[in-house]
Amino acid sequence: MRKFSAHYIFTGTGVLLNKGIVVTTDQGVITEIIDTNGAFEERSSVEFYSGIITPGFIDANLTSDPLSPEVNLSESSHQKFTILDAVNALVTNDLFTNAQHELQENRKICIGLKSNTSNDQEALFKLIKDLLLTFPMISLTQIITWATRNSAEALSISDRSGTIEVGKQPGLNLIGGLNMEMLAIKPTSTLKKLI
User: Fold this and answer.
1) Maximum distance among all alpha carbons in the chain?
2) How confident is the model over 115-133, as pLDDT tens digits?
């Protein structure tokens, strides 16, 4: 059993835990999520990290186009997904409806790489960083959702990964070197795969 904690845990379910704890088996299956309400006290065997813990990133890697028009990937849910796999100002700006940069309604965006380096966490993180630094109107939590939950839904694997929930085995990443006040990425931010 392993216990992980950080300044924040982004579960991917709409919950951002302040100094929460994620308990996993040695194989990475989540057995418990503890919300400390920010009142973390040092506990034995809890690995505490500076930064934000996220589910492992998922490479949608479903198209060779920089941004596919909408691709229907899930017959059961009939959701439409847009795969974002390159920093392209014209295409990315098209994701927004107006000058205030509000995301278009019902857009399901996921992150993918053009190469065959499926689930290369460092390459996905570089893409995420590039996107956030190029398009600051996109929030860190928004893009992490694209790279985790949405990509899992697009590949029909959301029953076992994409979010930090009991019973799932999403892998855990730590993003360090953030602007913690703004919860924003910096050029020097780093990624560490925890499990």
Assistant:
1) 50
2) 655 568 998 999 899 888 8
